[in-house]
Amino acid sequence: MNLRNYLLKRLLLSVFVLVGLSIVIFVIARIVPGDVARMALGPSAPQFAIEALEKEMHLDKPIPTQYYYWVKGVATGDLGQSLTTKRAVAEDIKEFLPATLELVMISAIIMIIFSILFGSLAAKYRDSWIDTLIRVMAYSGVAVPSFVLAVLLLLIFGYIWPVIPVLGRLSPGIMAPPTITGLITIDSLFTGNFTAFWDALKHLILPAIALSVGPMFQEARLIRSAMTDNMSKDYVAAVTGYGVPNRVIMHKYLLKPSLIPAVSVMGLDLASLMGNAFLVEVIFNWPGISRYGMNAMLQKDLNAISAVIIVFGLIFVIVNIIVDLIVAYLDPRIRLGGKT
Amino acid sequence: MKNLIMRGKRYSLVALLVILMMAFATGCGGGSTDGDTQGATESIVRVTAANVPNIDPGVGSDYSSSIALLNIYDSLVFPDDDGTIKPWLATEWETSDDGLVWTFHLRDDVKFHSGNQLTADDVVFSMKRMLTMGEGYAYLFTEVVEDVAALDDYTVQFKLSKKFGPFLSTLARLYVLDSETVMANLADGPYGDMGDYGKAWLVNNDAGSGPYTVKEMKIQEHLIGEKFDDFWGGWQEGAPEAFQIVGTTEPATVRTLLTRKQLEISDQWQTEEAIRALAEIPGVDIATFFTNSMLNISLNTKKAPTDDIHFRKALAYMFDYQAVEEDIFPGSKKAVGPIQFNLPGFDPNLYEYKTNLDKAREELAKSKYADQLDQYPIDLAWIAEVPDEEKIAMLFQANAAELGIKVNVTKTPWLSFTEQVGTPETTPHASVVFVNPHYNEAGSMLETRYHSRSTGTWEQCEWLQDPEIDAMIEDAIATLDFEERLAKYSLIQEKIIELAPTIWVFDQAEKRAYQDYIHWPSAELSKAGKNVNPVMGYPFYFAEFKVLTDN
Fold this sequence. Notes:
The complex is a heterodimer of chains A (340) and B (551). With 340 residues, chain A is mostly helical. Chain A has helices spanning 3-31, 36-41, 47-56, 63-75, 89-124, 129-143, 146-160, 184-190, 194-231, 234-241, 246-283, 289-298, 302-330, 332-335. Chain A is built from 14 helices and no strands. In chain A, helix 5 packs antiparallel against helix 11 (246-283), helix 6 packs across helix 9 and helix 9 (194-231) crosses helix 11. Chain B is α+β, with helices and mostly antiparallel strands. Chain B is globular.
């Protein structure tokens, strides 16, 4: 199967997955306890207001009909109104998604760079003190949940050693750049606003570290394990025998194939960073979509719940396709249609 | 070997570069906003809250929204610390003999933030908007206000559909919008000619005349209001130039901000342990004051065994109120009956259930379930989102065990709870719930807690449904004379206390940590042992604060 057909097949499958996901979430959100209109308008809201809201949201109709209206709205870009923020959900997503994407992007960069660095260092110096140190760090890093690490970082850098901002995306008094992508670091670079860039970057450091440490060490262990396995393979002995320099062996013959298992896990981790971001966003008062989604669930904000789940599903699907493409690039057997 | 060393150096170099980058990132930017000195000399009052407010007066009604609204908008009248109502936009008013027509005379020197003059038409517009939308505080008016009209530029008249004595109190929640500005910002919506009634625009903007105007509204982050120089009420020296409501209650975040002097007042959701830790921060005091929040254990009067009056009385006598006051919620005040002690209409001379195990046993013996307690275990629900309620539930369970009553304690999520109390059959025997009045008078508590109309909602898990009490409540709130009304409230309380449908546990003391470089009138009043304005949000009228920059 060539790459084009493979991609088409994956995209088609993804559409089915997203439709299925939307149906499941739509039904679950509507059958869990809680009177939506009453929740939104308050316990004393007059009956006419409750009925008007139910009519507006089609809550007075059967669930399949409600779903039909929802899909019809989505097709035209209308995701409905949020009952908590009182704005169009599409507008909320537009505002909160970039904040989380920016956080996840920086976390991913930290995660990828340091997992490869720590993984290859541990493999290279296996059974030495470096390996032991990285192993201890890995156990601690994986064992400590990201929200605990977030609180620790907040207390250390906010309370004991206040050298770095701990809340929000920008310091008061720093003018945000005009919105182009919604990612403040990127937008400030595009507009040449370096003050905002540095400030935004500083705000990203703590939440990004809190979010990335766990998966980073998990992947470092995978890379280390794959590299040490590959080191004992015949082809490595052969290229060593041919006098290929160690540096080339490490980078060309060992690192690339050893990244394959880690890249698949990285894909999953990247997507799950979005969900894990919730507590980190709460602690660092980060106005992201994970926090928005969790609040929507607590408030039974139906339109917001459906939209957030679909956005997360979409991101998960896209990341997985990208990961598959990277794995295909790294492993010629997949690229050439062979068996793995 | 040489290769190895070279490679080792390369990895070290990469690591060093990354560390340097991070150090650079943390060090760059001058740090003017990061250091621990920011805030102390800034003229701003920042407060954390459970959520960022809804600043549309036709929509917002929770705690943080109430704080924001009263600082951005003005109302016709203003609640005073002692529970009375004082003139505000309205300088005086009169009522018709039948109490159905209320006429208000307005100030003629009030300007909106837009520069427009505030007139009676704006009051009419604001009330009609509220009645049409039916959201936020509209529930105070929809059953009462029949019509509203401007008699001239500065006279407005309300026609009521029924007599309603506490009407003045409720008007403190009618925040007046600049109709011209709202009309200029209408979008498509369900309200006919009025489109969306300006709802979309008012999510992030204001159309008020209050002491502060919206500078920045970021949903999920904060609201920043800045001083409106032309405020009709004038400004006292030292008043904050700005206020900020930050939407977080995360203890570590709050503690960090207070320590860095980037927060002036904490939210009230910090646990007792967290409050004690905050009090240790240099320059931080704790303000303790009573708003109108009260904790009740509501007893289902329609389900055995709590349908028996003697059984209910036994529970009221067996409960250890002192343990709550001293250990679980220190600083709180034991409740006497259904009305909070600081609410107009509270009667301190009423009968009070106190812990008395002998009396509890006596009442239990009179109950029809006395000999079959093992067949009638009690289900008690507490709200999962309020962890401290579990301590109350456990105490109740332990107390009941002393009388031989078995209690099954259930942690119930709020959404499930509100569904569960929809019928008497599914409502638990006992429910631990915090309650608040809707307006500043006993009538509100009596109506929303004990009138038959309120059954099926979380506010009345008792299912009292007593026609005599219903009639007494309706008569009382229709009484125009204040003193006469209060006397009627007393009689109703007496009757309800006799029926013991509720264990009135305590009036909640709200505790907040605050910086000593601000002058916070409510904190000062509370320190002096005086009443603090009990109406939700009003202890946070920032125009009366001062930022003591010489501190």
